[in-house]
Task: structure prediction
Amino acid sequence: MRKAVLSLLSLSFLIFTGCFKDDDTPIIIEEITIINEGGGNGGGEDCPTISVSGAITSDTTWTSDNIYVLNQKVVVDAGATLTIQAGTIIKGTAGTGSLASALIVARDASINAVGTPTQPIIFTSASDNISCGETSGTNLDENDRGLWGGLIVLGNAPCSFSGDVSELQIEGIPADDTFGLYGGADAGDNSGVIQYVSIRHGGALIGEGNEINGLTLGGVGNGTVIDNVEVVANVDDGIEFFGGTVDASNLLVWAQGDDALDIDQAYSGTIDNAVVVLGDFSDHALEIDGPEGTTNGQFTLQNLTLIGNLNTDNGEYADYRSNAQGASNNIFAFGFKDGSDVELDNDGVATNYNNGDLTFSNWEIVLPAGVTNVEDIFVNKAETVTVTGFGTEASAVTQGSQTVGATTSALSWTYSNTAGNLGF
Result:
């Protein structure tokens, strides 16, 4: 492997020990180093690989003529903006626990990641042989999961936390790393733009039963743009919304290991036009939780297509849990097993359904073999609270005759559409 250092790059090495405590090694702030040119990590003669570690403390731009490799956690620090050019490839190194790689956009920082349908921004594993100018490699598929961490964006928007605290540490970041805090009082908080971005093969293990999500949004405000994002082959959830008010549109999650779209802590935005494609090891398409403190908030889910399969041991449509509050409208689902259900998990969420704080409308489902009544898919598992009418919001349809669901053509740009032969 031929090594090179480009004179155009100014190398800065500053030891910082105050907030990064993941391991015993010093942290290099804004380290930009060419580690190879002409091979390795998918780089080629015209596609050098740049290794990045530590904190980004000033405005920085990553360009599509390089591949950027995240070595452990890279943090866009408060006051800084990371701009990522359309077509740029970012790769995360392998590692678990404190050595897991991730890109973290801290509170009061910003990310400007604007791809295009033909030049998406791609986050993937360092073992992916994709190179500059390509939209996919050849050596990984939807069953290659947990090869790096994920993308985490944190903001100052309201969340509902247990004990009514105003901020909390995001899962996946050690408690003594203050860049992991999220939550606040600014519903309009702006963390930047994430548009036409593909996140693949993530979900590294950081603790027993604790993996990083593909895209984690903690307390992100509605000044932020989340549009045209796909997550493929993540060990844990595809996209998880921890509180916040951000709206998100044109989402696709394929072959996640846990839940595809996960809502927690009184998320109060709108998720519009999303597709979930379960893989062989997936759990729920939707996992919906509510407030954990006294502050309430209501989500809106609308225009979703949920695609199941007969292979996964779990593979549920949706689980509404722990005081969930909001509306789920215009949902089309097909391909699920006969034992899959839409579930009210406990007394609190059943009570919310009875009170009109949790609503459903215009669900259309292609019935699995062996299911003759669409209402049988909707199950109340509350211990003491009965519900009336749960499931009457749905109708049985044949595939192709549906009138609701996602406009899937908006997601024809995705890797999932091509590699998964989805026909969008």
In short: The CA atoms of residues 347 and 382 lie 5 Å apart. The two ends are 41 Å apart (CA to CA).
